[in-house]
Amino acid sequence: MVQVLQELSLPISFEELQQQAKQKLDKKVFDYIQSGSGKEETLQANDHAFKKWKIIPRYLTDVSKRNIETIIEGEKIAAPVLFAPIGMQGISHPDGELAVAKAAGNKGLPYIASTVSSYSLEEIAEANENGINWFQLYFPNDLELAKSLVQRAHSAGYKAIVITVDTNMLGYRERDRDNRYSPFKLGKGIGNYAVDPVFIRKIQGKNPDDFMEEMIKVFYRQNISWEDIAYIRQCADLPIYLKGILHPKDALLAKENGINGIIVSNHGGRQLDGAVASLDILPSIKEVVGDELTILLDGGIRRGSDIVKALALGADAVLYGRPYLYSLALGGKEGVEQNIDNLMQDLEITMALSGASAISELNQDLLWENN
Ligand SMILES: Cc1cc2nc3c(=O)[nH]c(=O)nc-3n(C[C@H](O)[C@H](O)[C@H](O)COP(=O)(O)O)c2cc1C
Ligand SMILES: O=C(O)C(=O)c1ccccc1
User: Fold this and answer.
1) pLDDT per residue over 64-83, tens digit each?
2) How many CB atoms lie within 10 A of CB 189?
3) Where along the sequence do coiled-coil regions lie (predicted)?
């Protein structure tokens, strides 16, 4: 008997992908993922920022040999794209981070594991043992705990530490408040804490029901200083990236403090509403830091042309966020792989049609600002 395999086929367009994910996911979960903080001005600004720039293509160039690979932290990656750290992927699909990390590795792109992952960083590293993993740190209040998380990441083969600096508390997310939804309530983001020896020691003797309360107590450090960043460097010999940098003066301080890279980001419009769009501030940041540290950007990356614009304005690579999460919800690991295939094809076509055959050829000369 001939077995007809129903091939998984996710929608190509981001808007359609989001629509189908909305139909599939629980309303509160979808709202939590999709929404921004406040009036969502920053969420919208991220989207709008890309529309302000138009590509002026160069023709009569040779694009017969195309290459979208690039090098980040000394490692060749298949495209200038990293998987943004997203907490609690278990709310989108039971395989959560294990599926996404494996998909990232299979496609030759780095995976950044969140502190609030549903699975532990060790399980994620094992799932993506042949790929590149980075660890995102939500700086805990307890330095010993910070050290433990970072050293575990180092032992598990993570290649860089990304410290998120824009979340000293959660943004004012109106939709979540209406829904009475808190990411912490579900207990889906405790993969790393549940197995951490320092945390386990901390809660010993306490009521297991208080686990979440204890975790929240140590979760946010509201006074991270440059000394704390230096402390993390002492914990493990790994490159350090700061995620959530928007002010050029902070970018300059990052450079002066010997940080390896920054991620220009407003957390996908989920933290400070009213904050500048990451793409809008990118040129000013590039101006102060030059080529001395790696610049990554996220917020609103949906298609190949978004990547071309971000790189032309000075980013070395971008982080890809919500779209992969919707793909995970709809199709697990295969869904994410398919979405990445589409994104990479789109990028290659966009570059070729712009007249560029390599990532290094993308610069501001290709852009026109539409005010
Ligand atoms: C559901 C969700 C959870 C997130 N969790 C984290 C996290 O744990 N750590 C972090 O640094 N950023 C987190 N972010 C922010 C992303 O890393 C990234 O900055 C943002 O999604 C980029 O915007 P985009 O989704 O519009 O592309 C989260 C974003 C979403 C949508
Ligand atoms: O929702 C988020 O944006 C986020 O970063 C987060 C913070 C704490 C727990 C889970 C996710």
Assistant:
1) 999 999 999 999 999 999 99
2) 24
3) none
Contact yes or no for 136/214 (Cβ under 8 A): no
Quick check: 330 and 338 in contact, CB under 8 A? no
- pLDDT on residue 243: 99
- Residue 199's contacts (CB-CB under 8 Å, 6 or more residues apart) are 145, 148, 193, 214, 215, 218
301 is in an annotated binding site: yes
Distances (CA, A) of 198 to 187, 195, 285: 19, 9, 38
Beta bridge pairs of residue 240:
161
Instruction: Return the closest-CA partner of residue 231 out of 148, 305, 158.
Output: 148
Predicted confidence (pLDDT) per residue in 13-36, tens digit: 999 999 999 999 999 999 999 999
How many beta carbons lie within 10 A of that of residue 190, not counting itself? 21
72 annotated ligand-binding residue: no
**Would you call 93 a catalytic residue per the annotation?**
no
pTM of the model: 0.97
Calculate the alpha carbon distances from 122 to 23, 126, 133, 221, 328 in Å: 33, 6, 11, 24, 21
Query: Taking the CB of residue 221, how many other CB atoms lie within 10 A of it?
Result: 17
Q: At what angle do helices 322-354 and 304-312 cross, to 10 degrees?
A: 70
Q: ipTM of this predicted complex?
A: 0.99
Output phi, psi for 317, to 5 deg.
Answer: -165, 170
Catalytic position from the list 93, 154, 247, 267? 267
For residue 160 and ligand 1, the question of a CB distance below 6 A is answered with no
CA of 49: how far to CAs of 135, 301, 306, in Å?
28, 11, 10
Ligand 1 in contact with 112 (CB < 6 A)? no
Instruction: Give, as one character, the DSSP assignment of residue 85.
Output: P
Strand, helix or coil at 163?
A: strand
For residue 92, give the 3-state DSSP assignment.
Answer: coil
User: What domains lie within the chain, and their CATH numbers?
Assistant: 14-369 (3.20.20.70)
Judge whether 149 and 15 are in contact, CB under 8 Å.
no
CA distance 311 to 70: 11
Residues 6 or more apart in contact with residue 284 via CB below 8 angstroms: 248
Torsion sign (Cα): 254, 311, 302, 112: negative
Q: Which atom of ligand 2 is nearest to the CA of 184?
A: 9
